[in-house]
Design brief:
The protein is α+β, with helices and mostly antiparallel strands. Helix content is 45%, strand content 21%. It contains 2 helices and 5 strands, in the order H-E-E-E-H-E-E. The radius of gyration is 42 Å and the shape is rod-shaped.
Length: 164
């Protein structure tokens, strides 16, 4: 008689079922670990792609405009006759903001500045002020003139003459 071996169902014992259950649980954990690794990797790649895309958009914007934003020194110029002010960029002497109406604070600063200039000009150009007198202006934290200080400094000692 000739024998043949075939794959056929065989009932598992309780111990075999317990061992198979442990293998199933281990395989589920392994799959979960690989999926978590994939998610972390995808997140990292997505962030890199997002950063590269942002850089690409910035380069395209600068190319399209033919310009890019950079820090530029600017100064407010006041036209008190017309009652307006403009913000002027110093590199090309062109208005970037304004004209806009002067505020009360702008007008107050102008008056205080004019008064300080007059006082400074008087005290520093007066021929009656001896050279050993210092004139300084004190301002508060908002730039307003608080007072002028006139201080007589000690006279410097004259150099001794050299004996020949």
């Amino acid at each position: 008689m000739k024998t043949e071996t075939m794959e056929l169902p065989v009932k598992l014992t309780d111990d075999q079922m317990l061992h198979l259950g442990r293998q199933l649980a281990a395989k589920v954990q392994e799959i979960e670990a690989v999926e978590a690794e994939k998610a972390a990797s995808n997140k990292e790649f997505n962030e890199r792609i997002k950063d590269l895309d942002a850089e690409l958009k910035d380069l395209a914007k600068r190319h399209r405009r033919g310009a890019e934003d950079r820090p530029v020194e600017c100064v407010w110029k006041y036209d008190y006759g017309r009652g307006v002010k403009c913000l002027i960029r110093l590199d090309i002497d062109k208005a970037v903001k304004g004209p806009e109406p002067l505020t009360d604070a702008d007008r107050q600063k102008a008056m205080e500045f004019a008064q300080a200039e007059e006082a400074r000009d008087f005290w520093t150009s007066s021929s009656e002020i001896p050279p050993n007198v210092a004139v300084t202006m004190e301002h508060d934290d908002q730039g307003r003139l608080v007072w002028l200080r006139v201080k007589k400094e000690a006279a410097e000692a004259e150099p001794a003459s050299k004996a020949a």
